[in-house]
Each structure stands twice: as structure tokens, then as C-alpha cells.
Specification:
Blueprint (H helix, E strand, L loop, with lengths): L6 H10 L4 H13 L3 H22 L14 H10 L6 H19 L15 H13 L3 H21 L4 H4 L1 H19 L4 H14 L16 H20 L8 H14 L16 H9 L2
Helix pairs in contact: 1-10, 2-7, 3-5, 3-7, 4-5, 5-6, 5-11, 6-7, 6-9, 6-11, 7-9, 9-10, 9-11, 10-11, 10-12
């Protein structure tokens, strides 16, 4: 039995039983919810379908957020990637425009999967769908990645927070990047221990990231932070798969993240009272929306 309170305990159990974090998570979910394996997997496939639909919709030309601040960004990046001129190459380029796409659908009040929150909904699908398109990954492997991601998310929620209002953007985009990093690592054949390392690397990369939405809208800088955080997830997975360790154990990193969130002033936690929300341009945009 796993309790989703300690990542090291989960990874050690998975290593001992020669299994994966996703397999343990699925079995524990069956026990906790009293739902069948088939029922749970069917729901996961539905969630994956929504993620794919959001990416497709968000990449279309002519999309615009309700405020009008955001529009066509994913299409612009995708066009550059498809032209062969991308600095990042096809895979990372797709990760970027996928993340933008899902977040653009969110700003248009479209249908997305909160993963783990609406403000960070682009990161996990961006990475997993790009992997599927570039590494011949099946839907079943993606589902396993989502299960692993959910385990990581639950541990973070139980020991810190997933709320930007409580812990800053490190709790939203940071957690999503950590979840995606672990998912990528398992899908690419990494060990459970490597998944924990990838989680730690991603969280360290965004430690202290503030939540400062301009005009209180989940648009600027939220949309761009999804794209950059998705690349952090890929980097963190690559480090773990290469055998690069995390000097600080993952559960200690999560505790540090929780402490940093508590130390942040309220002005930097989704109130739009600090950060770029209080730049001269940010204040002007907020005034225009009143």
C-alpha cells in the first residue's frame, strides 16, 4: 500500500517489487476508489483525448483569448518549427507550441484538463503528446505517464500545495513540470528512482517562482510560463535519464518548496499586487479592464 505522502517510499517500493510508479498508482487507485481497472483506464483515455483536442484547437490560426491579450501564439511557433528554422528542433519546438496551444484554449474558456491546475494545464500534455509524435509512444504508455504524474502531484499536494494563491507559481507550473518530468522519465525507460530525481530537478528549477498575473487574468505571464516550464520538464527528465543525480533528495525539495511558499508575501501569490502585474504596463492593462 502507498499513501502518496513520500516519493522516496514510493520509488523504493517500486524498485523492490520490480515494477513502475504507474503500476503502483493504478493498483492503489483501484483500492482507494473501489473502481475497476477498466473504469479508471477509460477515464484516463478520455482525459488524454481532451488533451489532444485542446492542442489541436489551440494550434489553429485565429484563436484569441476573451481579453484579446493572447492569440495565435501557438500557431506562430508551430509555423516556425515546421519551416525548419527552429532553434529548438522539432521535438522541443512542439513541446513549446503544444503548451501554448492548451493554455490558449484555457484563456478562451475552452475545454482543458487541469494538470494539476488550469493555470498550468499546458505543461503535461505538451510534453507527452510531443513525445508520442516524435518517439513512437503509444496511448497506453502515455496513460502510464499520466498515472505516474498523478502520484507525484498527490505527494506535492499532501506536503506542500498546488495552489498559486497559497504557494506562488512554483506550486502550479513548478508542480506540473515535476509531474511531466517524472512521466517522461518513466515512459522513456527510466527507473522509479530516476523519476524521483527528475521531479526534484524540475522543482529546483522553479523554486520561488511567483504568481503575478497581469490584471488578475490567467494569461500574462501564465501562458508563456507553461511553455518554458514544459522545457524544464524535458531538461529534468534528460538529466535523470543520463544518470545526473539530485544532490538534495526529492522529498526534501518538496518540503523546501512548501517553506518558500509560506515565506512569500501575499503580493506575490496570485493577487496581482506584485511582480510584473505591478509594472507600469501591467497596471495600465489592469486599468483598461476595469
Amino acid at each position: 500500500m502507498i499513501t502518496f505522502t513520500n516519493i522516496q517510499a514510493i520509488t523504493e517500493l517500486a524498485e523492490q517489487e520490480n515494477t513502475t510508479i504507474s503500476a503502483l498508482t493504478l493498483q492503489q487507485t483501484i483500492e482507494d476508489t473501489e473502481r475497476s481497472k477498466e473504469d479508471i483506464l477509460e477515464q484516463m483515455h478520455k482525459n488524454l483525448a481532451v488533451m489532444k483536442e485542446s492542442i489541436q484547437e489551440g494550434c489553429e490560426q485565429g484563436i484569441s483569448s476573451v481579453s484579446g491579450l493572447i492569440g495565435d501564439w501557438s500557431h506562430k511557433v508551430k509555423s516556425r518549427v515546421n519551416s525548419g528554422n527552429s532553434l529548438c528542433g522539432g521535438f522541443v519546438g512542439e513541446v513549446i507550441y503544444n503548451a501554448l496551444a492548451v493554455m490558449q484554449v484555457n484563456t478562451c474558456m475552452g475545454r482543458i484538463v487541469a494538470a494539476p491546475t488550469a493555470g498550468s494545464c499546458g505543461i503535461l500534455p505538451a510534453c507527452l503528446i510531443a513525445m508520442q509524435n516524435h518517439h513512437n509512444i503509444t496511448d497506453e504508455q502515455i496513460i502510464n505517464g499520466l498515472l505516474t504524474a498523478s502520484a507525484i502531484g498527490m505527494v506535492i499536494a499532501n506536503n506542500a500545495t498546488l495552489s498559486g494563491a497559497e504557494g506562488g507559481c512554483q506550486a502550479e507550473c513548478g508542480s506540473a513540470a515535476a509531474m511531466a518530468a517524472a512521466a517522461i522519465t518513466e515512459i522513456m525507460g527510466g527507473t522509479p528512482t530516476m523519476c524521483g530525481i527528475a521531479t526534484a530537478q524540475a522543482l529546483k528549477a522553479v523554486m520561488g517562482l511567483v504568481c503575478d498575473p497581469v490584471a488578475g487574468l490567467v494569461e500574462e505571464p501564465c501562458v508563456i510560463r507553461n511553455a518554458t516550464s514544459a522545457t524544464i520538464a524535458v531538461t529534468s527528465a534528460e538529466l535523470a535519464l543520463s544518470g545526473v543525480p539530485s544532490i538534495i533528495p526529492v522529498d526534501e525539495v518538496i518540503k523546501a518548496m512548501a517553506k518558500v511558499g509560506k515565506q512569500m508575501p501575499t503580493s506575490l501569490k496570485e493577487t496581482a499586487d506584485g511582480g510584473i502585474a505591478q509594472t507600469s504596463t501591467g497596471r495600465k492593462i489592469a486599468k483598461d479592464f476595469r
